Amino acid sequence: MSNSKFDKEFQKGLAFREKGKYRDALKSLKKAMDIDDKNPEVWFQFAEIMTILGKDIEAMKFYWLIKGTPGKEGLDPDNINAWINEANILMKHELYKEAGKVYEAMLERFPDNIIAVRGKEEASYELANVKYCTSCGKRLGKNEKFCLKCGKSI
């Protein structure tokens, strides 16, 4: 059964998002969530806007709610875009080991998914090429010539 109040707020949220009015979109989507907090699509849209706004940690919580976490089923564990977006955030923050685990879990649920296959390969490559300061152990950026923590030249 369709809920017209939910549909109205959800569609308003999508329209605001399309126009780039992200704060208004979040308000409308929040109203839709208050009406139906089990609808995975409203949570997904909310999470994507949080990602657009650079609020990656908050977005991750919503992606986990949608896809689930180890030991806890999500609202829509087959929403592959939630899996992809979580892995993308981890890669963006150079958390390659964690991203690799997400890609591995994706491959268990979605065998032969090319995005998961390539993502896992990229995460493994990046993880193998991470450098650490030999003096203090700080993780170094790709182009760092000296450690910003202890000042040792690389």
Helix-strand blueprint:
Blueprint: H1 4-18, H2 22-35, H3 40-52, H4 56-67, E1 68-69, E2 72-73, H5 80-92, H6 96-109, H7 114-128, E3 131-132, E4 139-140
Antiparallel strand pairs: 1-2, 3-4
Helix pairs in contact: 1-2, 2-3, 3-4, 4-5, 5-6, 6-7
Give your account of this protein's structure:
- With 154 residues, the chain is mainly alpha-helical.
- It has two domains: 1-76, Serine Threonine Protein Phosphatase 5, Tetratricopeptide repeat; 94-154, no CATH class.
- The chain has seven helices and four strands.
- It has a two-stranded antiparallel ribbon. The chain has a two-stranded antiparallel ribbon with strand order 3-4.
- Helix 1 runs antiparallel to helix 2.
- The longest helix is centred in the N-terminal third of the chain and has 15 residues, at 4-18.
- It is elongated, with a radius of gyration of 19 Å.
- It starts with a helix and ends in a 14-residue tail after the last strand.
- The model has no long low-confidence stretch (mean pLDDT 92).
User: What's the CATH class of the largest domain, please?
Assistant: Mainly Alpha
Whole-number mean pLDDT: 92
Sketch the topology as an H/E string, one letter per element.
HHHHEEHHHEE
Sequence stretches where pLDDT stays below 50 over 5 or more residues: none
Radius of gyration: 19 Å
Please state the oligomeric state of the protein chains shown.
Answer: single chain
Shape: elongated
Instruction: Work out the strand percent.
Output: 5-15%
Q: What is the third-level CATH name, the topology of the largest domain?
A: Serine Threonine Protein Phosphatase 5, Tetratricopeptide repeat
Helix content: 55-70%
Alpha carbon gap, first and last residue: 63 Å
Adjacency order of strands in the biggest sheet: 1-2
Biggest sheet character: 2 strands, antiparallel
Tally of alpha and pi helices = 7
Number of strands: 4
Structurally, the number of domains stands at 2
Question: For this structure, what is the CATH homologous superfamily of the largest domain?
Answer: Tetratricopeptide repeat domain
> Structural class, from helix and strand content?
mainly alpha
**CATH architecture level-2 label of the largest domain:** Alpha Horseshoe
